[in-house]
Specification:
- The chain is of the alpha/beta class and 283 residues long.
- Helix content is 41%, strand content 23%.
- The chain has 3 domains: 6-86, Winged helix-like DNA-binding domain superfamily/Winged helix DNA-binding domain (Arc Repressor Mutant, subunit A, Orthogonal Bundle), CATH 1.10.10.10; 92-162 and 255-281, Periplasmic binding protein-like II (D-Maltodextrin-Binding Protein, domain 2); 164-252, D-Maltodextrin-Binding Protein, domain 2, CATH 3.40.190.
Length: 283
């Protein structure tokens, strides 16, 4: 009987969530070679190929996808068992706000790493729009927030500057059509910049979908009925970056900013800020 090791399964899950070995290594606090070695051990143990290494990016084979579904459950059960048997009453609570479109892939790993250092501190994650998060922060309803903006307000710090890209269905043609159909949330901070860029470029457009439901946007774009935008490194896996060769306007660089409440300068908060900075600066 061959036994699967949780550490190697955790590496497999991290590579899938991070979209690559290098970023997964950062999240796991391991070297890239150590993560690659763990994946190799899995392949040797099971005598199957888990990753398709023929291309530039990371792609899972059929066996890799199959194992990944087991790995997620096994890692989750391991963590649940450890948590249940070692659980303590929380010594405090931190309220973290993150724009919903940059939660993945970085934030789950930040929460894991923070919990490993401060297991008795509970983090309440609020995923919403930048505008909503800034309002909550102003009211004292969040201790730390991340935002996606084109400028930095007083009291904040910029963790990363990343391009905003056009995205659409893989192999889609919606971006070629005129008027250009776009789909956005009502409170999306990218929306006014996208509209302004299209107007300045003289490109006719129509708001095909305006909603508060991200699933509706994803379904519409996946059906190649409209296009959308995403910060580099946060594109949903089912979408592809549009190679438009200048047919669509360039979009403004987005700042990922962090704001921290003045009264929250404790060691746990400092650690959370450190982990957020590290994760957002990584690519």
């Amino acid at each position: 009987m061959r036994n699967l090791d949780i550490a190697t399964l955790r590496a497999l899950v991290a590579v899938a969530d991070a979209g690559g070995v290098t970023r997964a290594a950062g999240f796991l606090n391991l070297t890239q070679s150590a993560v690659s070695m763990q994946l190799k051990r899995l392949e040797e143990l099971l005598d199957v190929q888990l990753l398709d290494r023929s291309g530039r990016g990371i792609a899972f084979t059929a066996s890799g996808d199959h194992l990944l579904s087991y790995a997620r459950r096994m890692v989750a059960m391991n963590d649940e068992a450890v948590l249940r048997l070692t659980a303590q009453e929380p010594e405090g609570t931190l309220r973290l706000g993150v724009p919903h479109d940059i939660v993945y892939p970085a934030i789950p790993q930040v929460l894991k790493q923070f919990n490993a250092v401060f297991p008795s501190i509970r983090i309440l994650l609020e995923a919403s729009h930048t505008r909503t998060l800034k309002s909550m922060f102003a009211k004292g309803e969040c201790d730390v927030i991340l935002t996606t903006e084109t400028t930095l307000e007083a009291g904040g710090v910029t963790l990363a500057e990343r391009p905003l890209h056009w995205i659409g269905a893989a192999g889609g043609a919606a971006w070629r059509q005129r008027p250009l159909s776009i789909a956005y949330g009502r409170l999306c901070t990218f929306r006014p910049h996208v509209v302004a860029a299209l107007d300045e470029a003289g490109i006719q457009w129509q708001m095909l979908l305006e909603t508060d439901n991200d699933s509706a946007i994803h379904a519409t774009v996946s059906a190649d009925l409209a296009v959308h935008t995403a910060i580099e490194g946060t594109e949903p896996q089912q979408f592809a970056r549009i190679k438009h060769d200048g047919a669509l306007p360039e979009l403004p660089v987005q700042l990922i900013n962090l704001y921290q409440a003045d009264g929250k300068r404790s060691e746990p908060v400092s650690k959370l800020v450190e982990l957020l900075g590290k994760s957002m600066r990584a690519k």
